[in-house]
Structures are given as structure tokens and as C-alpha cells.
Amino acid sequence: xxxxxxxxxxxxxxxxxxxxxxxxxxxxxxxxxxxxxxxxxxxxxxxxxxxxxxxxxxxxxxxxxxxxxxxxxxxxxxxxxxxxxxxxxxxxxxxxxxxxxxxxxxxxxxxxxxxxxxxxxxxxxxxxxxxxxxxxxxxxxxxxxxxxxxxxxxxxxxxxxxxxxxxxxxxxxxxxxxxxxxxxxxxxxxxxxxxxxxxxxxxxxxxxxxxxxxxxxxxxxxxxxxxxxxxxxxxxxxxxxxxxxxxxxxxxxxxxxxxxxxxxxxxxxxxxxxxxxxxxxxxxx
Length: 285
Prior knowledge:
The chain has five helices and eight strands. It has helices spanning about 40, 65-70, 90-95, 195-200, 225-240; strands at about 5-10, 10-15, 15-20, 30-35, 125-130, 170-175, 215, 220-225. A four-stranded antiparallel beta sheet has the order 5-6-7-8, with no helix packed on it. The protein has a two-stranded antiparallel ribbon with strand order 1-2. About 40% of the residues are buried.
């Protein structure tokens, strides 16, 4: 949507999530952003991840190529740096956009839709940890009172400073959203009505074989396997009485689309990290 004014959130203006400037068919370049005039329907886009709306599981944690970030790189939302070489399904739709000289477009417009032609935006291969994008009190551990709705809190949606991290070498900051390493299957039939003409990829937490390449808060990059994450979660539950990811959010024990997985992997590390940015997704060896 074109930016006309700010979205009103709890009576106060809330800035839009700016995507960048792009061409229009009837005039000069225009600023595009995730901003909507119907807050009842679209306000969840202002949340890092949506817990209990029709857009459940979606949020701006999937958009690391917004203007505030891509300005530090190539100044373009559609740039190869945001897509992993092995992420071939999204790449098949978006690779023709990489030479576009615009921040946002011509691969996206408010009238013609996204690169796949049906109005869907092709999201980058990498995603932030939405748990770390809320106040740490949103995903509190059970001993501290458990989950709180971020929309009910004064600072629930405020992104903590990176200095708030408690276990910088153990807390994930960004990783590959799709199952790319040691992948055994492409299209996930559980998402037959999803993007990419019904060929939605499996997600990083959908198989025991998945080992997403991960950026941690201390700046190091390493593979964090689903098996390792599950083992760490179990060990922490035995020692402290609760796991490394929160089961008491409105997403419940299914967490981040666990039921739609390839095998019996059952983890939502990175997405629902207990205690948010103050938590951890792996344990010291």
C-alpha cells in the first residue's frame, strides 16, 4: 500500500514497515510499505509473528529485506544476498528481479502482485527470530508467569536492543527459513494452498535431518540441527522444568507448524524461544 499516514495502534501512530521505492504505471516512483487501512484485518503485520489471527504464524520476522536493512547493503529489496543458493523454489520466481534498479519493483506492485503473479510476495530465504523481536516478558518461562499477549502490554511489541541478549553464543538471530540442508523432499503437501503455485517448501523445523545455517547473536555462523535443538530442549526441561521453546502461547504444543512436518520432528526453536532474546536455542557442550 502507498504510505498516506500512520497506522493507529492503541491510539498512537505506528510507523509502517517500509519496503522501498518502486515505479508506478501512472506517475513517479512511490514509497511502498506494509500499511493497511483496516487494522482489524491487517494489524498483525505490525507484530513480529502473529499468534491468534487469520494470519497465524506470519509476521515481519520473515522480511529481512525491508528498507531499513537493505539500505545497508545494495539498497534493493530484491537482491541475491537475501536468497540462499539452495532455496530453489523461491529463487525460480524471484531471480528475474535481481537486476531491477528499484528498491521495490518492478517485481512487485500493488496492482499486479508479486513475482509469482498471484499477489504473493516472495519472502527471503532467511528469517529473524520473532521471539527476540518482542519484549522478553512476552515469552516468559512458566516460573516467571508464562506467555503474555504482546498487544496487551505497553512495550510488548518493542524490539529489545541487542545488548539485552543473555546467551549471545547460544541464541539464534537469523537462520534459513526453509529446509535446505540435507533436504529429502521439496513441496509440502500440507501447504497445498500456499505460495509458489502450491509448492510451499518444508520449513527448517520440519525434519530431524534439517540443519539450518544459523547466525547467532555473538556474530558466529554455524549449523544448528533439529536433532540438537530437540536434545537441548529435553535436557533443559529435565533440569529446569520447562523447555527452551514456549508451549503456552496460543500456538500451543504445535508451535511453528510442527504438525505439517516431514517426519516426527517436534521443535519450534528460534521461533518461540523461551524468554525471548534472554533465552537460548542450544546449550553449551
